[in-house]
Amino acid sequence: MIAKSIQGDSLQAVKNALQASITAKFRPTLAFVFLTDVEEIDPITKLLNEEEITIFGASTSEKFTEKGMEPDGIVVLLLDINTDYFKIVIKDYKDASVYESACQVGEFAATTFNHPAFIISDADLRMPGEHIIKGLLDKAGAHVNIIGGRAGEFVNFEGIVFTNHHKSSSGFITLILDEDKIDVKGIAVSGWKPIGTEKKITKSEGAWIYTIDNEPAMDVLKKFMGNEFITSQTTEAIVPLNNLFPLQIQRESGIPMMRPALLWNKDDQSVMMGGPVIEGSMFRFSLPPDLDIIDTVIESSRSIKENELPDADAMVIFSCVGRLASLGPMLPLELDGLAATWNKPMAGFFSLGEFGKLDDSRPEFHGTTVSWVVLKEK
Known about the structure:
By secondary structure, the chain is an alpha+beta fold. It has helices at residues 11-21, 41-50, 98-112, 129-140, 217-225, 291-307, 321-327, 331-342, and strands at residues 3-8, 30-35, 54-59, 63-65, 68-70, 74-79, 86-92, 116-123, 146-149, 161-162, 167-168, 171-178, 182-189, 194-205, 208-212, 215-216, 238-240, 247-249, 257-259, 261-265, 270-273, 282-286, 314-320, 346-351, 354-356, 364-366, 370-377. 25% of the residues lie in helices and 37% in strands. Helix 3 (98-112) packs parallel to helix 4 (129-140) and helix 6 (291-307) packs parallel to helix 8 (331-342). The N and C termini lie close together (9 Å). 48% of the residues are buried.
């Protein structure tokens, strides 16, 4: 498999780069397309349809390739993968529940390939990412690879996923790969270091935490974080929060589940996290980010390169938008370090949540992590 990444600040720039990329020896069949301006979805799909290139697309706040970040334009990762080795499926939640939609995709994958793997992106912050994972695992098998990121921008938490002839603001897109033909390796990693003693979530429902150690959740968070993580002085009841300091929900495996705080309900002092939190869970706070976080992420790729997959053809990265705010000017070091491990074409975007395995356990839905995947044709 050959891969090439292209990017541009306009549709015309991407068109020129695409035409320059296509040669007698390189006819791409699949494109990862990440963009900011949703008005460009129809023109870019028209362009790629004319070249008969299948699309895995998502809108986002910001995106990047191995060449650097592209704040406002479009990035595309082109692959000349055999069309027998992959399928693209897009599902709207208006047609079925999140879980039922994922079950349908998982069942289709299991009947199409003996060993399917999934790269996914969903749109609609209200819908639980865990239900996508559960549906895929229930139908495709408990040990399949699932890696991806949630589409959308960080102001209104709205996004769109799209393929050649369909787009959805409340649904998910899936690239199903045949692992008998394509190696799929990746992991979700955070790097945040814990601090303080464990605390207990004594009342929660879904993603909302109401009490911690039987005290109002926001009161406890303020004691540790101060007022710096309150990003708005709005008089509205629901207030956005700064997710620089995710909660580290403890797990039996030892690697914590990261849950950033997103919203504060001033009426009852509850806090909405970037994913469901089980009542009774124990957690620790996180230290401010530093270079150790970046080293941990880069080491995750080096470890897989050394122990599982010495070479790759392409890389896709889904990095939490919270890392963009937290790491600031250090963030390019993280992206460059991941890309340099494999030294192959790469594309990615800043997501509103990530899908992947933290270790050898089942895939899960995370926040403030980097979920990355490399592909290698066998």
